[in-house]
Amino acid sequence: MRKQIAFIYPGQGSQAVGMGESFLEDDKSRQFYDSADQVLGMGLSKLMLEGPQEELTLTYHAQPALLTVSSMITERLIRAGIRPDYTAGHSLGEYSALVASNVLEFPKAVEVVHKRGLFMNEAVPAGEGAMAAILGMDADKLEEVTDDATNSAGVVQLANLNCPGQIVISGTKAGVEKACELAKERGAKRAIPLDVSGPFHSELMRSASHDLAKVLSDSFLLDAKVPVVTNFRAEPETNATQLQDMLIHQLYSPVLWEQSVRKMIELGVTTFVEVGPGKVLSGLVKKIDRSVTVIPVHDLASFEKAVEELTT
């Protein structure tokens, strides 16, 4: 019996100068970089390959860059005969999952995530929003903390439920600072401010979601050929209208990553292939369930190793 495989896709924070370079001697792979440059009318590929890192990390560059690398590696995996039974992505990574599941064509997805980055950048002026990782506190207790901090200091909410004992919060700078203080007072092991450009997955992103909705309505999403386990509901979805709605909600709602991984395991997935730069999701999946197989594919060497493991 064939292993049930999920392709999972990283989000912002995984970008690095030089990512994907080892694939570029292959003409089909190179076309993804050329296509992204053409769609955006800028040298995104030069930025990806040469940096500087600070410029690449800007949300409206990081989003199309990560999508480009992940989509390129997906094509190589499928060409090698490795196909997913489910796809899922963390935040921005959900768009890479949609390309893999044939919901969005790659050039359109590049355009959409670039605009998504611009909308997110414009939604909250720099310095007014913040995010922090809270370690060692469960979601119910942390939600009490964020409710109290919202009432006393400013809007803050759960943003990423990543794995047991690791939840990211997001909101106003004052709200996040207060929530970090309260969390530590009430037993959290650590509260770590994150170096991000905005309060992603919080109510402060709602204005950006209105702009994103207009862009998505013109983007001709198709029904998924492979079910996508969405951030918003942590359930598999194939309907294009529903998927579009999930993307809009996702912008200002928590990423239910732990729940998504558990759902895929419940559906029979035993192997998770992290497709794209870094190994962040591989680490999270192992913290959720150590019994599953996790295979990160981020360069040519790891790709060749994955092909050998998954085709023998």
From TrEMBL:
Enzyme active site: S91, H201
Gene Ontology biological process terms, A to Z: fatty acid biosynthetic process
Lineage: Bacteria, Bacillati, Bacillota, Bacilli, Bacillales
UniProt keyword annotation of Membrane present: no
Protein name, per record: Malonyl CoA-acyl carrier protein transacylase
Ranges where the Malonyl-CoA:ACP transacylase (MAT) domain occurs: 8-300
E.C. no: 2.3.1.39
Reactions mediated catalytically: holo-[ACP] + malonyl-CoA = malonyl-[ACP] + CoA
Family stated for the protein in its record: Belongs to the fabD family.
